[in-house]
Write a structure and sequence with these properties.
Elements (H helix, E strand, L loop, with lengths): L1 H23 L20
Amino acid sequence: MRALTAAAIGLAAALALVFTMTAVGAPEGRTFPEPLRTTVPEHP
């Protein structure tokens, strides 16, 4: 029964964090216009 209570408390805390972050909104920031490289360039 203690495990079920702990799981419920953890789930409630996680949901509270998600709802708080949703209410606050995304932080203002700057994005880079160029995409990041996802592959390693080939060397001749």
